[in-house]
Design a protein that fits this description.
By secondary structure, this protein is mostly helical. The protein has a single domain, classed as Hypothetical protein af1432, CATH 1.10.3210.10. The longest helix is centred in the middle third of the chain and has 24 residues.
Amino acid sequence: MDAFRLRTRLVTEGEEDSRLAPGATRSADAGPRAEAEPDDYWRTGYERDYDRIIHSKAFRRLKHKTQVFMNPEGDHYVTRMTHTLQVTQVGRAIARALSLNVALAEAVCLGHDVGHSPFGHTGEDALSEFVEGEWRHSDQSVRIFEVLEPLNLTPEVLSGIRTHPWKVAERATTHEGDVVKYADRIAYLAHDALDAMRAGVLDPGDIPFNVLTAFGDPGREWVSSMIQAVIDESNRQSKIIMEPTKLEAMHELRAFMFEHVYLRPEVANQQRRAKEIVRDLVSYYLEHLDQLPESYQHPEADDLIQVIDFVAGMTDRYAIRTHDELFRPRLF
């Protein structure tokens, strides 16, 4: 008896018609890439996208980018990379339960945050001061994969990445792309609360009663309950959505986290300093364009876009170190 059974791309694609839900995205129906390329013998197009993202430099930088706590000293605090891996796990669980294309959902989840600036949403707010409207990390994630570190991803993956923030009204072009909206929020609310408790910012008794009633104890129960609420209601309504009472509890938890963790008075000085660093760096490089790395010099983009590309791509520690080198007076 043979120990193995080979699985080619054609085998996987051939099985999807019977294995996937009617509303799932078939790998064989993936939209055209910006540059045509031959199919892979072993992997579907979405599996290739997942692999390309996880091997990218932008993905590697996430390990030194803020999730909630800037430059935490403890080893167990969530970083932007561990958050991304947690989002991918949640997205996989939802997609698998609904018989969606798991590889597509995972690829979108894996790439959704690569465009985040240093210092998380604080850095995003600082960059927004330089542009008309709002600077969004989701748009920057797509720009990274299309221009700065072009990976020639499928349009379905790029759509899911671009539309994942809740403030973006546009829906993704696939159900799998819509999954990341919920996977992202489930992951960050559950683990940010645990980090806040670990840091002594929150006490378990502080959590709103309605949240505990809806989702159980913080941690594993929250993740499982929220995932289940998405699976059940999505199956009922044939679109990716959370059960209304659970969704209301999740909104209440998010509002609570903003008041007691993300925007608490104790972090105001830290956030102000982070914004100053980002502002100073953008202003400096606008006056010293010749100091931009060659990989960020794109003649088709204006000066501000090139500078923001560079600063947004910095990790927290690189931004701090570069700012110190440029603005702190030297003793010798």
